[in-house]
Amino acid sequence: MLVKQILMSKADNKVVTLAPGSSISDAARMIADKRIGAVVISSTGENVQGILSERDIVTELGRRGPSCLSDTVDEVMTKNPVTCTVDMAADHILATMTEGRFRHMPVVASDGKMIGLITLGDVIKARLMELSMEKDALEGMIMGH
Ligand code: AMP
Predict the structure, then answer these.
(1) Domains detected in the chain
(2) Suppose 81 and one of 4, 51, 85, 100 were both cysteines; which one would form an S-S bond, judging by CB atoms 3.0 to 4.6 Å apart?
(3) Which of ligand 1's atoms lies nearest the C-alpha of 105?
(4) With a threshold of 0.85, does the pTM exceed it?
């Protein structure tokens, strides 16, 4: 299973982005409105400058309290996040996310432009479907169907 197949299985490949200089409260509102877990920080909507996840916001709130909400995302985001390309294998993405302890990965083309975003949930869903199909095929072979 490749990243391109995971992207194809998603209903919507538009990535929610916010421009650098936006406030953390803008990001929190965006995350709540869109019911997502992270927002990519990008000045053009295509270049990946950073990623800000709900965990970053909660961590900052816990450290500094609500005054952090008026700060810019630039200070809190993870800069230059790990990205992947469409020809990478789902197993490799799972290993990278597990080792890096993050659940979101922007997908970029060879020129570095963002073309989608996959989450740990997308990868697990795709792998489970693949395993179920393999199981059915093996059962069919054993039963002679
Ligand atoms: P998450 O599990 O995606 O909510 O993120 C946990 C932490 O990892 C947060 O500090 C994020 O900013 C950071 N993070 C999220 N995605 C990535 C990524 N693709 N590369 C590097 N760090 C990331």
Answers:
(1) 3-143 (3.10.580.10)
(2) 51
(3) 19
(4) yes
